Write a sequence for this structure.
């Protein structure tokens, strides 16, 4: 037990040193250096921990050591996960300013305005400005900007995407929100219980709480599979989880939470409606979890698979419906603009090492579809009740082929116990 506590302390101090560096959103080189350093420390600690757990005796879910926590590994995982998230709560996010947009979207919805209707700079939302989010633009001042369709030309789009730090800390204040409805509902819920004066602190606390809950769920999964439940600490200690879920507060941790719940529901052989609902909620946060859906179906279990697919898709459609009725096609937000913006040198950059951009995009689709077919037609019938591995491979394939540059996109991969 002392080794586990010591490892947690070492990693907590490592992350504390990173937080002291400050925000690195505009200094990507610095972000790369400090995060690589934390990954080196994590790799050393994780290897020692893994070897100790592999060589130690673990029977019946109990762990070596004394005290009550030694016989309650899930509780121990949750407590240590909370402990390592705690330092990040005292610092501003170090990797991005996305949480400012979470706060704004939640505030807009609480005011009774649909979040897809106006961009933040639109003066029709001026009454919602405060000195934290808009340090250079008072409610009685005009921004001179009115919501309009995004251009389809990439160069013009990049011009619209510019930030105005002298007026607002929101990134892309002339862009409509890109987030799907379940994410927007989450922003509203957190904003409803967070005072304006707290800034982004409410989302940092919510992200940390979700990371702790997800770590506990992974521990439950491992125990149900007859494996060491304390291995869930590898998720709780992971730099991506600590830096991006708690301190960074990124909504991707909510995706991870729903996906792990869906895996547990499938493992426990709950109804296909529940599994499909949970996958649909995950997709309603960020859409990309749709690529994991083939991992939850099997051609050998067609009726149940069909229910899971229909429920997942129906959940996302129903989440969009109220917004569509309110604002029509504006409900798409800036998703189209995001696709245009990312269709450059960053898109499929690994595949572009061997082929051109157009061929890389086509190859990415072919690879992803091929992996999806493997998932659906996999031979292990047990995988239908334990979709963790195929779901992980599917999302990992998407990340590999598209090669996003933002670390928090990988958060849903982090809880995998495979």
């Amino acid at each position: 037990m002392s080794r586990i506590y010591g490892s947690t302390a070492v990693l907590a101090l490592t992350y504390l040193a990173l937080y002291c560096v400050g925000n690195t959103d505009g200094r990507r080189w610095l972000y790369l250096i400090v995060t690589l350093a934390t990954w080196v420390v994590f790799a050393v600690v994780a290897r020692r921990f893994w070897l100790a757990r592999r060589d130690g005796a673990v029977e019946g879910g109990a762990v070596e050591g004394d005290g009550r926590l030694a016989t309650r590994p899930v509780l121990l995982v949750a407590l240590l996960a909370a402990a390592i998230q705690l330092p990040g709560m005292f610092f501003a996010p170090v990797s991005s300013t996305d949480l400012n947009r979470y706060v704004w979207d939640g505030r807009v919805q609480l005011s009774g305005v649909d979040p897809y209707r106006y961009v933040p700079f639109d003066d029709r939302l001026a009454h919602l400005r405060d000195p934290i989010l808009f340090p250079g633009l008072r409610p009685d001042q005009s921004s001179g900007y009115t919501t309009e369709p995004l251009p389809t030309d990439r160069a013009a789009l990049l011009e619209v995407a510019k930030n105005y730090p002298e007026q607002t800390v929101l990134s892309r204040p002339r862009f409509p929100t890109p987030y799907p409805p379940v994410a927007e509902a989450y922003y509203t819920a957190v904003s409803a219980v967070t005072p304006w004066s707290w800034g982004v602190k409410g989302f940092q606390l919510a992200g940390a709480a979700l990371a702790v809950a997800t770590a506990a769920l992974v521990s439950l999964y491992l125990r149900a599979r007859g494996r060491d439940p304390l291995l869930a600490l590898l998720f709780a200690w992971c730099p991506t989880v600590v830096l991006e879920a708690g301190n960074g507060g990124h909504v991707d941790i909510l995706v991870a939470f729903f996906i792990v719940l869906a895996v547990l529901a499938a493992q426990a052989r709950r109804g296909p409606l529940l599994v499909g609902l949970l996958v649909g909620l995950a997709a309603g946060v960020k859409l990309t979890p749709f690529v994991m859906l083939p991992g939850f179906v099997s051609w050998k279990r067609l009726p149940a698979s069909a229910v899971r697919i229909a429920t997942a898709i129906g959940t996302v459609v129903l989440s969009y419906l109220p917004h569509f009725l309110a604002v029509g096609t504006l409900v798409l937000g800036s998703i189209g603009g995001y696709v245009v913006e990312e269709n450059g040198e960053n898109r499929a950059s690994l595949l572009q090492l061997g082929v051109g951009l157009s061929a890389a995009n086509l190859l990415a689709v072919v690879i992803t579809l091929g992996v999806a077919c493997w998932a659906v037609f996999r031979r292990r019938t047990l995988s239908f009740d334990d979709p963790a591995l195929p779901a992980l491979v599917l999302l990992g394939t998407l990340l590999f082929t598209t090669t996003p540059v933002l670390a928090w996109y990988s958060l849903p991969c982090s809880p995998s116990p495979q």
Q: What stands out?
A: Residues 57-63 have pLDDT under 50 and may be disordered. Residues 28-55 form the longest helix (28 residues).
